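User: What would this chain look like folded?
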Amino acid sequence: MKKEEIHLWDIKRILFGQAPPEFLLEVLIRSLILYLAAIVVMRWMGKRMNGQLTIIEFSVMVTMGAILASPMQVPDRGILQGLTILLCTLLFLRGINWLAVKRAGFEKLLQGDVSLLVKDGIIQLNTLQKTKITHQQLFEVLRTKDIFHLGKVKRLYIEASGLFSVYTTTDDKAGLPIYPPTDSAILKSHDPSADKACCKCGWVGKPPAQMTCPVCASKEWTDSIK
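Assistant: Here's the prediction, encoded as structure tokens.
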């Protein structure tokens, strides 16, 4: 549109755009057809599309929004174009999944690999840095699993899909408390330990004064709990 054709009081243009009002009925029909087609394509894409998405599946979901928008709303675009692109998207995803099944290295290249974040109550700081996860984000995951100190954690992984897998231990082992700093009063509900915990990696021991952590060389210590 030209600049001089735009007026704030042009209610018809604001409500209907430049298309005739009858096009609203056509939009309804187009949307219904493409909506049903999208449901069918999503069904063919597999059950994973209804659960936690991989990187490839998430990319497809974002792309589908652009695929469906124009055929639904633009008068000079037919719905056959949208249906064709939907079919191509389906074939693309199916092909990617087929290659991932045939070649494990291809799947790892596209979607990444599992990463170990905590091992035997000690935070793997190098992995934490590579995955761009902060200590507080890590602690938040553990608190949602009713874990309140690192001594209970045998392994914590972040999967390629972004989900966290937590495996606990039954050993009565002291660990770094992971309560929020603003809720220190709740520490009284846990048994204190004579050992100290490294505030950075969670290593637990009896360090002498000013000793650096043998794992991460940090000098910040706190009381560990059981």
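Strands lie at 115-119, 122-123, 153-158, 164-168, 192-198, 204-205, 221-225. If you want, I can go into more detail on any region.
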